[in-house]
Amino acid sequence: MTTTHDSHAYPPPPGNAPGNALGDPPGNASGPDGLVAGPAQGGPGRGGPPGGGHAAGGRGARTAARLWRGRAGDAPWVRPAFVGLLLVTAVLYSYDLTASGYANSFYSAAVQAGSESWKAFFFGSSDAANSITVDKPPAALWPMALSVRLFGLGSWQILVPEVLMGVGTVAVVYAAVRRRFTPAAGLIAGAVLAVTPVAALMFRFNNPDALLALLMTVAVYCVLRALEGARTTWLVGAGVAIGFAFLTKTLQAFLILPPLALVYAVCAPTTLRRRLGQLALGGLAIVAAGGWWVAIVELWPASSRPYIGGSQNNSFLELTFGYNGLGRINGDEVGSVGGGGGGGGGRWGSSGIGRMFDASIGGQISWLLPAALLLLVAGLVVTSRAGRTDTARSAFLVWGGSLLMTAAVFSFMAGIFHEYYTVALAPSIAALVGMGVTVLWEERHAFAASAALIVTVAVTTVWSFTLLGRTPDYLPWLRWAVLIGGLAAAAGLLLAGRAGRRGPRLSLGAAALALVAALAGPVAYSLTTVNEGHAGSIVTAGPAAARGGGGMRAAGPGGDGGRVPPGQQGQGQQGGPGGGAAQPPNGLPGQGGPAQRQGMGPGGAGDGGAREGGGGGGGGGMGGLLNGATVSSEAEATLRQNAGDYTWAAAAIGSQNAAGYQLASGEPVMAIGGFNGSDPSPTLAQFKEYVAAGKIHYFVAGGQGGQGGQGGGQGGGPGGNSSSAITSWIESTFTEVTVGGTTLYDLTAEK
Question: Above 70 in pLDDT, residue 487?
Answer without folding.
Answer: yes
